[in-house]
């Protein structure tokens, strides 16, 4: 058995963490032979609730859980961590605009970037879940200059999983038989869910999804808007933002980053190098593959005129969010 790794989860008393912690502590993320020591961060008024979560984790009697540290101090939470799930921040409620979140949440990621910079391992892998996730990841990285920028990622895996599930449903196949959908851009309603390179396994042979669906209009309209608006639809139905599916997506993202993507690509918000004509230095969701713990943007895909337009819209929103966030962080 390997030595335990320290893993931080922020917003640990919240609803996403309530599903996520079990997945991490049961081995679903770092593998069945990797013990974990959980560092759980939340704000001081939530320490009572957090202690309840700590009790429940103990009561799960999980063999891979080497220990738990609940804390309200970011520097304690991030000390020597190999992985950090940055979930803690305010979720959007019905009636709130996503932009309302930016000023409320972006400061949290400035402070946490500074703490990570001081005390985390320099090879720490950071996944930002808290919204606006892409821009929060960018800000966190900006305030942690001693950690490589490629170690900061934002979660678009939930959108990726949603897109895969929509296509599987449309084609009447199990979700595992669809691969290589892409979420481009921001984790927001400007994201571009793209099925043009997706494959479906039919009788052991991979076929292009566009040919199998045979309905371009659906792929450009209903498919795109359903995925773009899925988070809002869950909020409207549950009166709370998605949590079970968000936790599953966070597990998928970190597992694939640590253990590799195999024969499929996945969507991750990563620092843009300008690939596919996107704005540089924003956290943009691309198709990536991962080997030996390093992600790489999938290159050489054809971008249609329709896709170009969609990539430009979401890129413009990210550039605007970056400007607004830097303004908020000035003081
Ligand atoms: N990227 C995605 O796909 C995705 C999907 C779903 C939700 N989200 C986002 O995830 C975030 C969390 O959602 P939730 O449903 O778990 O919310 P929640 O309100 O249930 O929990 C959030 C927790 O964060 C804590 N918190 C607030 N400020 C903190 C700070 N400075 N440090 C540490 N903890 C802090 C709160 O006390 C609370 O316990 C929201 O921003 C939500 O919009 C993102
Ligand atoms: O606030 C939103 O619009 C969405 C919340 C969450 O990010 C999701 O995708 O389910």
Automatic annotation (TrEMBL):
Residues noted as binding substrate in the record, renumbered to the chain: 92, 98, 131, 162
Domain (Lactate/malate dehydrogenase N-terminal): residue spans on this chain: 5-152
Catalytic activity line of the entry: (S)-malate + NAD(+) = oxaloacetate + NADH + H(+)
Record keywords, A-Z: NAD, Oxidoreductase, Tricarboxylic acid cycle
SUPFAM superfamilies registered for this protein in UniProt: LDH C-terminal domain-like, NAD(P)-binding Rossmann-fold domains
Domain Lactate/malate dehydrogenase C-terminal: 156-327
Transmembrane segments: none
Binding site for NAD(+): 42, 105, 129-131
Enzyme class (EC, first level): oxidoreductase
Protein EC: 1.1.1.37
CDD domains registered for this protein in UniProt: MDH_cytoplasmic_cytosolic
Family to which the UniProt record says this protein belongs: Belongs to the LDH/MDH superfamily. MDH type 2 family.
HAMAP family: Malate_dehydrog_2
Protein name (record): Malate dehydrogenase
Biological source species: Galleria mellonella (Greater wax moth)
High-level lineage: Eukaryota, Metazoa, Ecdysozoa, Arthropoda, Hexapoda
Gene: LOC113512300
